[in-house]
Amino acid sequence: MLDILPHDGGIHEIRMARPPVNALTIDLVRALREAITEAPANGARGIVVSGAQGMFSAGVDVPALLQCDRAGVEAFWNEFFALCGAIAVSSVPTVAAITGHSPAGGAVISLFFDYRVMAHGVYKIGLNEVQVGMSVPDPIQFAMRRIVGAYRAERLIVAGAMVDAEQAHAIGLVDELATVEQVVTRAVLWLNDLLKLPPNAMLRTRAMARADLVSVWGDTTNLLDPRFIDDFFADETQSVLHALVARLKSR
């Protein structure tokens, strides 16, 4: 489910390994959160999270989630929010090595890293939840606004827009582009450069710069709005999601 790969300089790469598309189940989300939380205690000075070449993560495993009752759906989203919070409050710098397509949940988790390197070319990224019948909770919208600005975030989120890598770079949704083979290498190099700085000054300044994110995401215990779960079970959402699953099965 996860591969932990050491790099020089105390950088730990956490690679999602749930074929074929790294769809996010509660087990993968929990394992990723635990790996990120435990990495500094295991000697990590920086963390890179990556996926397979061509696919960072396809987002939530919708077929699995549709099999859950309300308690199961709520448990998944609470765990997903906890993952985002763990990235937000990480005591060491983090980089998302976006190794390919990154729709929906894959795009969401990328918002919480210090830096995002994405594979250029045909790959797309975006919060396309509205297109599949789901609303975007306000704390996630906040994280998006923080990256690309309020008006651009509104336009992208309300439309459920997916953008290609070049567009994502142009609007600041990702910080750097690289060939798909070099995404992880570039992520590690960026971290190495950051970690060469005087550590106390860098980490204190980083904490101040990310204080707004931590103020929202530092404690996710009650962050999930129950109305979001209500919306998931609404007829419109269920109809769109079941149609999506049917299309996926027909491929």
From TrEMBL:
It comes from the Bacteria. Belongs to the enoyl-CoA hydratase/isomerase family. InterPro entries: ClpP/crotonase-like_dom_sf (IPR029045), Enoyl-CoA_hydra/iso (IPR001753). Transmembrane segments: none annotated. This is Enoyl-CoA hydratase/isomerase family protein. It comes from Luteibacter flocculans. Pfam families: ECH_1. Gene3D superfamilies: 2-enoyl-CoA Hydratase, Chain A, domain 1. SUPFAM superfamilies: ClpP/crotonase.
